[in-house]
Specification:
With 366 residues, the chain is of the alpha+beta class. It has 13 helices and 13 strands. Strand 4 and strand 5 form a beta hairpin. The longest helix has 24 residues. The radius of gyration is 24 Å and the shape is globular. It starts with a strand and ends with a helix.
Length: 366
């Protein structure tokens, strides 16, 4: 029997706003003024981050935008693209939202979407409609062999596949093309990824709660683009929540299937029994969060320790220090000197970073 846990890992949503330029006039004016400050200060200091708070939420405001969107706001939960004007293009939406993986795993799609939906209404105006333009569905599993004879055991709608190796062993399989296909699938060693990157160590807690072997968890993830979602009559976030089982069922019963190779002709081979169980991953999907945000942030902080030790020991060696306390004492002097040169304080930097991590006061109110 396999152990598994499934979730929406990423979702991008386009929002159309009623009377956009008029209802959002004041905040667009604010964003324009703040961006001018961000550009001016980042020109003299490439490390500068411009932090703004709007309606109980804090963001970094980027000094650059992208095509169609003059302003980009980002914190630990959301990335928001904001247009200065309502384009005359028929399908253009002035607001685009990306909900982070961390937010979706901690809050669940219902709460995460409710928070940002209400914030957008209060900030920019009434939402006419929402359109999901990207959706990533994933399932973490153990006790499945994805890689033995992998070139001969998968069938489906995909037209190309690739394998990536780590130390002569396959650690990732990809199906389809991220650039040209409406569905793209990755199956990869999630345990290995976390060990190497030392990030998102909080997944260990989720896996342990679900009785999974934390040393050998693999992730199967389908990236679904707007063209496929439209063809399946899935437009809104509400559609997504009500059709998750249908989406996963199509991805794992039609688009990609693992078989037991008992016949020369792959179409005659039976579906692998573990894959049959995997197909049920979203049958009883729960929209609630699977880990608290405080636990996520605490584990992420601990994951920085190896890097910190590396930097401090290198610094101590170059400053000819012998102990940790001795290194800290001279480092404190150098840090204060650096901050004076940058016309900043450690307290100010800490407050800015905390505002992006914990600045979503709406989350606390839910």
């Amino acid at each position: 029997m396999i152990n598994k846990v499934s979730n929406i890992d990423t979702i991008n949503v386009l929002l159309n706003i009623e009377n956009y330029e008029e209802s959002a006039k004041e905040v667009l004016k604010q964003l324009k003024e703040e961006k001018e400050i961000a550009i001016l200060r980042s020109n003299s200091n490439p490390e500068y981050k411009h932090i703004i708070c709007i309606n109980d939420m804090c963001f970094e405001l980027f000094s650059v935008g992208r095509i169609g969107y003059a302003y980009i706001l980002q914190n630990n939960d959301y990335k928001i693209y904001v247009s200065q004007y309502k384009s005359k293009q028929k399908n253009f939406s002035p607001i685009q939202i990306r909900i982070s993986s961390e937010c979706l795993w901690s809050d669940g799609i219902t709460k995460a979407w409710g928070i940002i939906y209400n914030w957008v209404v209060e900030t920019f105006g009434n939402i006419i409609n929402d359109k999901v333009c990207r959706l990533d569905l994933c399932c973490h599993v153990d006790n499945i062999d994805f890689i033995t004879n992998c070139s001969q055991i998968y069938k489906g709608k995909f037209k190309e596949y690739n394998f990536n190796y780590k130390n002569s062993s396959i650690n990732q399989l990809t199906f389809g093309s991220r650039k040209s296909n409406n569905i793209y699938c990755r199956i990869y060693n999630k345990s290995l990824e976390i060990r190497e990157k030392k990030q998102k160590l909080w997944f260990y807690d989720i896996w342990s709660i679900n009785n999974m072997n934390i040393e050998n968890v693999w992730n199967i993830e389908f990236e679904l683009k707007s063209e496929f979602l439209r063809s399946a009559n899935i437009t809104t976030v509400s559609d997504v929540k009500s059709r998750l089982q249908d989406l996963w069922n199509y991805c794992t019963t039609v688009w990609l299937v693992k078989v037991d190779r008992t016949n020369k002709r792959i179409e005659r081979c039976p579906i692998n029994s573990d894959w049959l169980e995997l197909q049920n991953a979203y049958n009883e999907f729960c929209s609630k969060g699977l880990i608290t945000r405080s636990k996520q942030i605490s584990d992420d902080a601990k994951s920085l320790i190896p890097t910190i030790v590396g930097y401090i020991s290198s610094y101590g060696a170059k400053r000819k220090r012998k102990t940790l306390d001795d290194t800290f004492s001279i480092m404190l002097v150098d840090i204060k000197s650096y901050l004076r040169f940058k016309n900043s304080t450690f307290e100010k930097i800490i407050d800015e970073k905390k505002s992006l991590l914990f600045g979503n006061n709406r989350n606390q109110k839910q």
